[in-house]
Design a protein that fits this description.
Blueprint (H helix, E strand, L loop, with lengths): L6 H67 L2 H4 L1 H31 L1
Helix pairs in contact: 1-3
């Protein structure tokens, strides 16, 4: 059964509806601002990630060239099995880090 509302109840309801509309608008603006901030942060992280990836690749390349040069020249200090193994392990670790960075970058891109 429907009850007729008095003018004061209708007025209160209208005020409540208006208040709720304003609250929704504020929440939507906050959400939009947060989204914009997150997108800017993602872009910054992408740039930082790319810089780190390039540095790691450069460092790995330099280490590989260094190891090859000294192994090929027969440098006793560097070409010892222990040092070669250490270099190989370091290179493997750097490659692992590059793959992890790439995976993180892909996750960041998917979040967008």
């Amino acid at each position: 059964m429907f009850h007729l509302r008095s003018n004061s109840q209708t007025s209160e309801n209208s005020e409540e509806i208006q208040r709720l509309k304003e609250e929704v608008e504020r929440a939507e603006k906050e959400l939009s601002d947060s989204r914009s901030s997150m997108l800017k942060e993602i872009e910054t992280l992408k740039i930082e990630n790319e810089e780190i990836r390039r540095k790691l690749e450069t460092e790995a390349s330099i280490r590989e060239e260094f190891a090859e040069k000294h192994v090929n020249t027969g440098d006793a200090d560097v070409s010892s099995d222990e040092n070669i193994e250490q270099l190989k392990n370091e290179l493997a670790e750097e490659r692992k880090l590059r793959l992890e960075m790439q995976a993180l970058m892909e996750q960041i891109i998917k979040r967008q």
